[in-house]
């Protein structure tokens, strides 16, 4: 078995995370150490840089520089929301082949796996040997065949730490508090808010995920029940909650407000970067349960995927190992693969990295299993056991 | 000089912080160690608990429990937004004297110093010896005679870490990003966002504080200038920004929306707990500079005063020392005082705790000196030198 000789390119796509640069460092150092490729190019702004020939040379980055990049939030190479079609991918192929690039490492979500797949096919049709590897990344944790994805653990840690502190704030100054958390279709991140519960009675009382239909009457009844009993109510809500027809509440609000909605290149309605959903739910509660109630809403927004001082150590380690494992898959002779994370043991928690064909991950979405959701407004202990090792130890708290 | 013999009460008021419980631990342990008082009562929900006789006994809390409380966000005793008048304070005095309480330690902002003052006066009129001590606390950093206040450093650290990560996110996926930060009259916390700037060109490009009049045309021109040059624009805005008449933009929006605004017991318009200001500014930018622009707004909300995993170590230490210093002031024979933090040296950074008469701090507000504000949309290096030691080392970042 002989490996093609030539150069490599690495790129980062979609929403950045606090550990996506750890994957970048993992890819680069593993190529350097193995000699898989001669030169290592970084494409600026993902497919956009590959389309326009905007590359930077990463071949000689030293260990200290890589360690620093590995702990830097955001996508250091730049990212893109472009959704390349076959025509776009043909132009990418021209840029890659012109640079004798034989290995393509793409760090991103299921769309990135699909881009790997299409570029591979274009190369194959041209009789050019190009091996494409997808390194998983998404705070949404929605890639199939993966126990979880790099980026999720740190975002989940942010959400858990935020709810832990915010619940204590709410206990000190009681009222109804809504926290809106990222997640279009998958509720894993919102569900992780349940980790904030401690023996001191903190944490969210109610959790609403996009896997369940959001019914306003049911929501108001839930809030009323908790508030009547506890004198306060902490609520974690996914930004992706939707009505019975599947229309997101955010889309409904945007259409009411302006008659139009902002969509990305993938056709998705823009959910983040606005406080509209939280403010709407707060207004709804006041209208239905009393104008005098102290109701507040916070939307965690981009902080949950970028906050510089709250990282899950296992997440950071796995992100780097995922990058290295993708290079190992190339060294092992795979002609292309998506790296997947599999849990091999719960106690002690251990992970292995398994390459699978790109099409098995591309364009597919995983959501919370129904068995992890309880009564439409909570999660089960089984979910908590699953998510705890991904987040790491939370700060310990006391009570008087 | 003989000290009155009897019991002590401690309470926490206003918005909680991540270190207000460290001050609580400091007060309790210093009383335990010195024998200043026989029993130590904690009042639940501040003046409300003192009014209603809702006390908990803290006399026998051990060191391990105090250490745990000291690292717990939120006000463990509960807080209150009540603004006690003289009648209210007379009832408090009845509860305190009935328990033979001779020492009153109140952790809070300038309103708390004023409550200490009024309760002291009521006791004095009744010929009852009661010594009241104010321990400073506020993320707004707006107490006079203080170099800074416990709670500010950790909140400033949160803001700096948030802007650091969010700016890197914005560089990866360019656009215009607005981050709304707490602060009604004082812009210190919003100004601390400037710490996020690194040699890699991150951090906010524009900073708007409540100390300056917010002019919409000027704001739009600033954003246009930065975006045209950089292809992106990071903006830090205080929730307290206001027009030339002093009307906050948030109040203007609330009046436009519903014809009424929510006010607290102090007559202040409710600013936090809503994304309305950020969403308004984002809409304004789109209307004036182009509907197709990628404009996002996040409002940091209650996270900046409660986040469990982002604490300034010097802030935590000083919060605890402030509590201890208040007890020391009592032991030194002061009949009442507000503890103030004075910087004795910049290099190395050192602080001392100086008791001053309550009325010198009560009801007064400090804002950013004009000399620390630059061009109405930035802060000076002098401010950065001032704030850096309060926040501690930020995560180091790399770049490719």
TL;DR of this structure?
Two copies of one chain form a homodimer. In chain A, helix 8 (about 215-230) links the parallel strand 7 and strand 8.
List its salient traits.
homodimer; 400 residues; alpha/beta; Rossmann fold; 2 domains; 7-stranded mixed beta sheet; 13 strands; 39% helix; 18% strand; elongated
**How many beta-strand segments of chain A?**
13
Q: What fold name goes in the CATH topology slot of the largest domain in chain A?
A: Rossmann fold
Strand order of the largest sheet of chain A: 3-2-1-4-5-10-11
Largest interface pair: A-B, 71 and 71 residues
Radius of gyration of chain A: 22 Å
- How many H/I helical runs of chain A? 13
Q: What is the N-to-C order of secondary-structure elements of chain A (H for helix, E for strand)?
A: EHEHEHHEHEHEHEHEHHEHHEEEEH
